[in-house]
Amino acid sequence: MNRPFIKNLICILLLCGTQLSLSQSSTNGRYIFFLHNKFIEDHDLDEDHPQYGNAHYYEILNEFKKEGFTVYSEKRPKNTDVKEYAKKIVIKIDSLLNSGIDPGKITVIGTSKGGYIAQYVSTYLVNPGVNFVFIGSFREIDLKDLSDVNFCGNILTIYEKSDVYGVSAVNRKLTSNLKISRFYEIELNTGLEHGFLFRPLQEWLWPSILWAGQKFDELEKLNINSSGASKP
Questions:
Q1: CB under 8 Å to 31, separation ≥6 — which residues?
Q2: How many domains does the chain have?
Q3: pLDDT in tens, 4-46
Q4: Domain containing 86 — which CATH number?
Q5: Domain that holds residue 30
Q6: Is 152 part of any domain?
């Protein structure tokens, strides 16, 4: 799975700053907003985490790109405010929706801090047709400390059992008062702790890709350890 940086082959539309045109190579007319973890905020992309190694940002983006998705992503500045950044993403999604893009063709995928941003996007957007994947981004204490989060949309949560954030988000589902059109949860057992989301592992990438393609039934048929799954 490890590959050299391939910037020229990856379409990245910066959400803030310089505007780039959308890739014309998208074959499925679907869009992914990928929100990375906090380590990437704080460090250069070629800098390794002392425990988990490189964050493989471009490799992860390319996994989505090669499946035909148009990818929106950027390296966020240090100390990005979660709620304010989520509002910026909502504006971008609203722009797509206003241009006639079906909400089911839009997916927000976030890892770690990016997953928390994605949860606020879900809260602020209030669109039950948009897809969301929250990866390694929930703890039980969030129910108290982040009580203003409400899931809305088609929700997939993925967590690693050995991770400090390796907790089921079913209770968040139960406390959310917005419409959750679909909910599914996957528990991984890689033993990599929080480092599992630093790697372009098929264990979390492929479920995310299936979810973004709204291949819900296909995902649920996979032999993946899951909990808290429910259908509408």
A1: 69, 70, 71, 72, 96, 101, 105, 106, 107
A2: 1
A3: 322 322 333 333 332 322 333 344 699 999 999 899 898 877 8
A4: 3.40.50.1820
A5: 7-221
A6: yes
Element at 188 (helix H, strand E): strand 180-188
Does 80 map to a domain? yes
The answer to whether position 1 is within a domain reads no
DSSP 195-208: GGGGS--HHHHHHH
Q: How far apart are CA 225 and CA 45, in angstroms?
A: 32
Residue 145 lies in a domain: yes
The order of strands in the sheet holding 131-135 is 70-72, 31-35, 106-111, 131-135, 153-160, 180-188
- 128-176 pLDDT per residue, tens: 999 999 999 999 999 999 999 999 999 999 999 999 888 999 999 999 9
Q: How many CB atoms lie within 10 A of CB 39?
A: 20
